[in-house]
Write a structure and sequence with these properties.
alpha/beta; Rossmann fold; 19 helices; globular; binds pyridoxal-5'-phosphate
C-alpha cells in the first residue's frame, strides 16, 4: 500500500472550540495578583488593557470548551488545518524504529503559529469597538502576526520593535509595514518611558521590557486603544490549542497515538497548543504520554528557574504571575532563537510542571542548529531557530528509542520556518556560533539582590 506522508484535514475540521485545560486541572494555577491591591486579580482589573472577552478568557477556570467565533474560523481557513507530516526521511537518517511526526505551523502566512492567537485577539478587540492596538516585538514574529491580523479585522496597529532587531532584522519590519502596521524602534521619543531611557542612555539598543512599557503607555493614553501580548498569558495558550486538537484527529488518521509530545518553549504558547489536547487524556488516566518542553540552555526557566510570583515584564507593569522564572530583570544571552528569550513560563505550564505532569529539558545553541540542519537536509523545511529546540529533543528521543530497540511514536510542533533567520544559519555554517554557559551565580544574582 502506498504510504501517506502528510495527513490533511478538510476545512470543515478546523476546531469549533478551544480547549481550556484549567477547567480540568486538579491543582489549578495560583491566582494572578494585582500588585496595587495585593488581591487576586479580577477580570475587570484587565479591562483597561485588554479586550474584555480576552480578560474573561484569561481568568476562566470553569468552561472546558470555549466556542471559536465563525469570523475567526473563517480567517483560520487561510492556512488551517495545517498538515501533520510523518518525518520518514529524518527517521531514515537516524536509523530509528521511532515514528516521528510533526505538526507544520510554519505554513501560516506569517511563518509561525503566532497567528492563531493574533487573529482571535484582533477579532475580540474589533467587536468591542477598539480601533487601535499596540504591542511590542523582539525578533518580530509576534509583530508580524498581529500586523496581518489587525489589517484583516480593520484595526490600526503600532508595534514597538526592540531597536537592535529593528536594525538587524529589517525584513520582519518590512513584513509588518507591508501589512500596514506602524513600526517604531524602541526606545523611542514617542513615550515618556522611551524619552527617559534615551535621555539617560542615548545609545541604548532596547529590550523587550522597554518595548512593553512603551506599548502599554501608548495604549493607556490613546482613546479606543488596547494592548495585545503574544505568549505567556492563559488566553494565548487557549487559542493555540487548535494545533493539538487538529493533531489529535490527524494522529487518528495515521492510526497512531503519541508516546511523546514535544514543543519548544518561550513563554509557552506553542508548547501548550500542541500538548494540552493530548494531556487531557493523561489527566483522565486514559493515557501515559510524556510532554517535553524544549528550552534554550541560556534561558532555562523551567529546568533551573524558581517557582514564585514575578512580573511578566522587566519594568513591573503587569500583574504578578505565579510562574517558573529566572527573574524579570534577567537578561538572557543574545541567542538566535529570539522567541525563546523570555524570563518566565506561563502560569498553567508552570503549575503542570510543578505537579510533574510535563517535563522540560534545555538544549544548547549549537545542538539546536545541528538538529535544524539535519531536519532541513532530510525533510526540506528550514526550521525557525526556536523550532530547532523541539527538533533536537525529538531526535534525542528517537535515538534513545533506537538504543532501547523500542518503537516510540514522537510528535513535535514545528512552530515556524526560518527563512527570515538565514543570517543565523550563515553564522552556524561558518562556525561562528557558540554556546552560552550560564553559571549559577548569574542565575541567582537578581533574586539575591531582593532578599
Ligand atoms: C514566538 C515563537 C516561539 C516561542 O513562543 P511560545 O509562546 O513559547 O510558543 C517559538 N517558535 C516560534 C517560531 C516563534 O515565533
Amino acid at each position: 500500500m502506498e504510504r501517506t506522508k502528510k495527513f490533511m484535514l478538510p476545512e470543515t475540521a478546523i476546531p469549533t472550540q478551544w480547549y481550556n485545560i484549567v477547567a480540568e486541572m486538579q491543582n489549578k494555577p495560583l491566582p494572578m495578583i494585582n500588585p496595587q491591591t495585593n488581591e487576586p486579580l479580577k477580570a475587570e482589573d484587565l479591562f483597561p488593557l485588554f479586550a474584555e472577552e480576552l480578560a474573561r478568557q484569561e481568568l476562566n477556570d470553569n468552561d472546558v470548551w470555549i466556542d471559536i467565533p465563525d469570523e475567526i474560523r473563517e480567517k483560520y481557513k487561510i492556512y488551517r488545518p495545517t498538515p501533520l507530516v510523518r518525518a520518514y526521511e529524518l527517521e531514515k537518517a537516524l536509523d530509528t524504529p521511532a515514528h516521528i511526526y510533526f505538526k507544520n505551523e510554519s505554513v501560516s502566512p506569517v511563518g509561525s503559529h503566532k497567528l492563531n492567537s493574533a487573529l482571535a485577539q484582533a477579532y475580540y478587540n474589533k467587536i468591542e469597538g477598539v480601533t487601535n492596538l499596540t504591542t511590542e516585538t523582539g525578533a518580530g514574529q509576534w509583530g508580524t502576526a498581529l500586523a496581518f491580523a489587525s489589517k484583516t479585522f480593520g484595526l490600526e496597529l503600532a508595534v514597538y520593535m526592540v531597536k537592535i532587531s529593528y536594525e538587524q532584522k529589517p525584513y520582519r519590519r518590512s513584513l509588518m509595514q507591508s501589512w500596514g502596521a506602524q513600526v517604531i524602534a524602541s526606545p523611542s521619543m514617542s513615550t515618556k518611558a522611551g524619552r527617559k531611557i534615551i535621555t539617560e542612555n542615548p545609545t541604548y539598543q532596547g529590550s523587550l521590557g522597554t518595548a512593553i512599557s512603551e506599548a502599554i503607555e501608548l495604549a493607556m493614553q490613546t482613546p479606543n486603544c488596547k494592548y495585545a501580548l503574544g505568549s505567556v498569558l492563559n488566553h494565548v495558550a487557549l487559542h493555540q490549542t487548535v494545533i493539538g486538537l487538529e493533531a489529535e484527529k490527524q494522529m487518528e488518521m495515521a492510526d497512531e497515538y503519541p508516546d511523546i509530545v514535544i514543543g519548544c518553549f518561550g513563554g509557552g504558547s506553542n508548547f501548550s497548543g500542541i500538548s494540552f489536547p493530548f494531556l487531557r487524556h493523561n489527566l483522565k488516566g486514559e493515557t501515559h504520554t510524556r510532554f517535553i518542553a524544549a528550552e534554550p540552555s541560556s534561558c532555562p526557566k523551567l529546568t533551573r528557574g524558581r517557582f514564585q510570583y514575578d512580573y511578566g515584564d522587566e519594568i513591573g507593569y503587569t500583574p504578578l504571575i505565579p510562574m517558573y522564572t529566572l527573574h524579570h530583570n534577567f537578561a538572557p544571552a543574545n541567542i538566535h532563537a529570539g522567541g525563546l528569550r523570555y524570563h518566565g513560563a506561563g502560569s498553567i505550564v508552570s503549575q503542570l510542571h510543578k505537579d510533574n505532569l510535563v517535563e522540560a529539558v534545555d538544549v544548547n545553541q549549537l545542538d539546536t542548529f545541528k538538529a535544524g540542519i539535519l531536519f532541513a537536509r532530510t525533510e526540506g523545511i528550514i526550521p525557525a531557530p526556536e523550532s530547532n529546540h523541539a527538533i533536537a529533543v525529538a531526535i534525542d528521543e528517537a535515538l534513545k528509542a533506537k538504543e532501547e530497540g523500542v518503537k516510540k511514536t514522537i510528535l513535535f510542533n514545528l512552530s515556524g520556518h526560518g527563512l527570515l533567520d538565514m543570517s543565523a544559519y550563515d553564522q552556524y555554517l561558518a562556525g561562528d556560533l557558540s554556546n552560552h554557559e550560564l553559571k549559577d551565580e548569574e542565575l541567582n544574582k537578581y533574586f539575591e539582590r531582593e532578599s
